[in-house]
Write a structure and sequence with these properties.
heterodimer, A: FAD/NAD(P)-binding domain, 2 domains, five-stranded parallel sheet, B: mainly alpha, globular
Chain lengths: 482, 113
């Protein structure tokens, strides 16, 4: 029998996405011996086509086919690669709204959580990631969203992204400044190490202390055992894997019980001219009805166009041949519903469920109707809503028909924003960790990723994740130095 | 039916039939390749989802052997049956996404334009 490979470190960081990479950089630069373990592989940018099935195979969990069960079920995606979701998402950057931070501070009793301090960290992140707007031309799909909203007099904004551009370059010429280009190299420069293709199976404990980790290293289908001894462990596996890891470790207090997402419904819109940019998304978002409802653009590969038409293929299918003239858009809502993440003994992956409230279902319908209105104002010839038995929308009269036929249970609901499965705060009735990510009831198990966000922030959450992770990592360094 | 590699036989049979009915002019080799893709994705689904898909697939396949695959396929693709309706939805979603990403010039009946 092969002996397990063993590693030692001061701090084991589980996961290398927006939470894990920033944490690793702060800790390594403060002199801690940091080891990062990442379940996915290191995939060089440019080696896969953005938003393609190939990318989903290489950089998403389960090839991008993951679902929170419910009525309706909600499809979601998780990055599973070095850099996590920052490598594969749209790169759109939103600071957390001050009002949201203030609400979280008071409702969840989060200590030392001044919004001004967090926004100062946001400014650092923006500099590190080169967050900026497109210096040159936008894609046609972007302009459609802006044009439609402008004609309705609805508020819309260009959202900056973590991209660098050649001077004056257009939207598709950006270079993503994800974690593998920014915080991970910073961590490595200060001595941090990373083990990719290593899945954390279990954290061993003795009372309040975690004592080690058991992992499986998989290469070309061959698996081998790995163990790690550490002083402290910081779990940054994202809002689904982090609670599953904690539960497998026997830590269940308020863990995995309050999954929060931004549910979205979609439509495809057909225009007179080619508008499809397969490898990019719209950088505009419509915020007229924020925070309850927001509109944005989705990836529109021909395969994804076909997917968007699938729910009513008999009536919509013929549009797929005109895919260059189609683009896909979404309406996202802030949800009052909540979900569960439950690790089940003997089963590799957690069970994820989510329940939309009546108000959520109504908002999804309103959002889809208003989004269709934006498309018509922008000049869409036909709009194809993604729900079963949906009509083709060609004018405002069709909108009324569509609204009357919509039911969330018939819709293809999905999300890419998952959070709040180990909420932070000193209110132990609500929270799984203290105000800085230390899991209640432990001395050395921390969480530092999207799971900490007490609620879905109503905007793209990764800026919030990075700012809070850096805040907590600095606090950790101060305490361990003391 | 061609060898579909690691695709569970029940899922492969259902996917072959569904794609053949939806896209009658899709070339056989393309359909087989698409079914293989569907099988690979089913193979990496999260544990509980995969178990559910395979269980439903086995039930649908058994029912198909008794009353006819065409009849069973028609029932579960037309009736809004909870969970059961998700099965053809999953197969179609994966299949269509693969077909139009791989061969974007495919016509709505599956023919190559």
């Amino acid at each position: 029998m092969t002996r397990a490979v063993h590693h030692d470190c001061d701090v084991l960081i589980v996961g290398s996405g927006a939470g894990g990479a920033t944490t690793a950089a702060v800790l390594a630069e403060a002199g801690h011996d940091v080891l990062i373990v990442e379940e996915g592989s290191w995939v060089e940018q440019g080696s896969t086509v953005p938003f393609s099935l190939d990318q989903m195979d290489k950089q998403y969990r389960s090839g991008g086919v993951t679902v929170a069960l419910g009525l309706p079920s909600i499809a979601y995606t998780e990055g599973r690669c070095a850099g996590g979701g920052t490598e594969v998402n749209s790169g759109l950057y939103w600071r957390p709204p001050e009002a949201t931070l203030e609400l979280w501070r008071t409702k969840y009793q989060i200590r030392d959580f001044a919004s001004s301090d967090l926004l100062d960290i946001c400014a650092e992140v923006e500099s590190e990631l080169s967050v900026q707007k497109v210096p040159g031309e936008h894609t046609d799909a972007s302009d459609i969203l802006r044009r439609g909203a402008d004609r309705l007099g609805w508020r819309n904004d260009e959202i900056p992204r973590w991209m660098t551009y050649p001077e004056g370059a257009g939207a598709t010429e950006g270079q993503r400044q994800s974690m593998t280009r920014t915080y991970l190299p910073r961590a490595f420069a200060s001595g941090a190490r990373i083990l990719c293709d290593h899945r954390l199976d279990k954290i061993t404990r003795s009372g309040r202390r975690a004592t080690g980790a058991e992992l499986t290293h998989t290469v070309d289908g061959e698996s081998s055992a790995v163990t790690v001894a550490f002083r402290d462990v910081i779990v940054c596996g994202g809002a689904i894997q982090t609670p599953a890891i904690l539960q497998r470790t026997g830590l269940r207090h308020r863990v995995g019980r309050t999954l929060a997402v931004h549910p979205t419904v979609k439509l495809a819109a057909r225009f007179d001219d080619p508008v499809n940019t397969p490898e990019d998304v719209s950088v505009f978002q419509v915020k007229q009805f924020a925070p309850n409802i927001s509109f944005g653009g989705s990836a529109s590969h021909p395969g994804l166009v076909a997917l968007a038409l699938t729910d009513n293929w008999r009536d919509f299918g013929s549009a797929v041949t005109a895919w260059p003239e189609l683009a896909i858009y979404y309406a996202a809502i802030t949800s009052e519903g909540r979900g569960l993440v439950q690790a089940i003994p003997g089963v590799r992956d957690p069970l994820v469920t989510y329940r939309l409230t009546k108000r959520d279902r109504d908002l999804l319908g309103q959002g889809l109707a208003r989004l269709a209105m934006v498309m018509l104002e922008a000049g869409a010839e036909e709009v194809y809503p993604s729900f079963k038995q949906a009509p083709i929308v060609r004018d405002r009269a069709d909108l009324a028909t569509m609204t009357s036929m919509f039911a969330a249970s018939k819709a293809s609901v999905m999300t890419v924003h998952l959070c709040s499965t180990a909420p932070m705060g000193d209110d132990e009735r609500r929270c799984a960790t203290d105000s800085h990510g230390l899991v209640h009831g432990t001395d050395n198990v921390f969480v530092n990723d999207a799971a900490l966000l007490p609620e879905a922030p109503g905007v793209n959450p990764q800026a919030s994740v990075m700012a809070i992770a850096i805040r907590n990592a600095r606090r950790y360094c101060d305490e361990r130095a003391g | 039916m061609s060898d579909t590699g690691s695709t569970p036989r029940t899922v492969a049979r259902f996917a072959e039939g569904l794609l053949a009915a939806d896209l009658p002019l899709l070339a056989d080799d393309r359909r087989h390749e698409t079914v293989e893709f569907i099988g690979r994705r089913v193979g990496v689904l999260p544990s509980i989802t995969r178990f559910g898909v395979l269980a439903i697939g086995a039930g649908v396949d058994t029912a198909g052997m008794i009353v006819g695959h065409h009849r069973v396929r028609r029932v579960i693709t037309r009736l809004p049956l909870p969970l059961l309706a998700e099965y053809p939805r999953l197969v179609r979603s994966l299949g269509y996404a693969y077909i139009w990403e791989t061969w974007p010039d495919t016509d709505v009946n599956g023919a190559s334009r």
